[in-house]
C-alpha cells in the first residue's frame, strides 16, 4: 500500500518560510494572498496490504520520527 | 572529570569540544562514534555542533533516534550530566530530554557572529563559575536556532529558573535587535528540571583561549569542574 503524509506546522507556531513565500508571491503580483503555511509531503510504499494495519504503522512512524509533535501536525492518506 | 563526546556523521564541532574538554579536565575525552554500542562510564557526555545526518528531515531528528543516543538518554536518566551545543541542543530537544524545538531562524539566514549572552541562572552545574546577570560574548553559528516552546512550557521554564542564557544587547537588555534568530523570550540555552542536562545554541567551546579571540567560554567548562569534581 501507499501512504501519503502531510506534515504541517501547528497553529500558533510561526512559519518564517511561509511568510517569505507570501512576500514573494505578493512581489510577483499575486494579490489577495492572506497567509501561507508551508510543510512537508512524504510518500511511503509499504508491503502491508491491510489498510488498518498500514495506517497504524504509519501513525507510529509519524509519532516516532516523521513529525515533531512539539511543533508539527500530520495527516495520513492510505491507498 | 571523565567525559565523552559523541560524533555523528557530519558533526563538525566535535574536535573543538574535545580540545576544550581535554584542556580543562586534563584528560582526553572518550570519542564515541554513533555506531559504537557502549559509552564508558563518564561524568559528562557532550553532543557537539554540526549538521548530523545532513540535517535531513529536521535538524537533530536522525541523531536523536540513533542507537548511541539511547545510551545518552540512559546516562541522563541515571542523573549523568549531558550538554548539547548547537546541533547537540537540537538533538536534545528531538529526544525530548529538553522541551521545545529549534526552528529555522526568523531571518531565514544562517547567522554566524558573536552574540552577547546574559547568565540567567548561575545555580546550575554549567553556569556556577559565572555571576548571575553576567554578560558574556559567545559566537553563534546556525541556521535553525529559533527556540520555540508553547506558552505553558515557556512559563514553566521561566518560573523554574531553567533559562540558563538569554540573548541581550551590549547593555544587557533583552531586545528584539539582540535576538539573532527569533527565539521566544530571547532564549539561548535551557536546562532540565533535574539540572543535569543543558542545551544551548552558542558555542562556548570556541572561546577558551586568547588565540580564539576571548575566553568567555571557559566559565562554562570551569562550572562543570566545580560541580562534578
Describe the model.
- The complex is a heterodimer of chains A (79) and B (229).
- Chain A is of the alpha+beta class.
- Chain A has a single domain (2-78), classed as Phosphoribosylformylglycinamidine synthase subunit PurS (Mth169, Chain: A, 2-Layer Sandwich).
- Chain A is built from two helices and three strands.
- Chain B is of the alpha/beta class.
- Chain B has a single domain (3-228), classed as Class I glutamine amidotransferase (GATase) domain (Rossmann fold).
- In chain B, strands 2-1-3-4-11-10-9-6-7 form a nine-stranded mixed β-sheet, sandwiched between helices. Chain B has a two-stranded antiparallel sheet with strand order 5-8.
- In chain B, helix 1 links the parallel strand 1 (3-7) and strand 2 (30-33).
- The longest helix of chain B has 12 residues, at 14-25.
- Chain B starts with a strand and ends with a helix.
- The model of chain B has no long low-confidence stretch (mean pLDDT 97).
- At the A-B interface, helix 1 and helix 2 of A face loops of B.
Structure, briefly:
The complex is a heterodimer of chains A (about 80) and B (about 230). Chain A is about 35% helix and about 30% strand.
Order of helices and strands of chain A: EHEHE
Considering the protein shown, what is the CATH homologous superfamily of chain A? Answer: Phosphoribosylformylglycinamidine synthase subunit PurS
Helix content class of chain A:
25-40%
Count of domains of chain A: 1
Distance between the amino and carboxyl termini of chain B: 6 Å
The low-pLDDT segments of chain A are none
**DSSP strand tally of chain A:** 3
Terminal Cα span of chain A: 6 Å
Strand order of the largest sheet of chain B: 2-1-3-4-11-10-9-6-7
CATH A-level architecture of chain A: 2-Layer Sandwich
**By CATH's scheme, which homologous superfamily of chain B applies?**
Class I glutamine amidotransferase (GATase) domain
| Overall morphology of chain A | elongated
CATH topology of chain B: Rossmann fold
Number of strands of chain B: 11
Q: Note the run of SSEs of chain B as H and E.
A: EHEEHHEHEEEEHEEEH
How many separate helices of chain A?
2
Kindly report the average pLDDT value of chain A.
Answer: 95
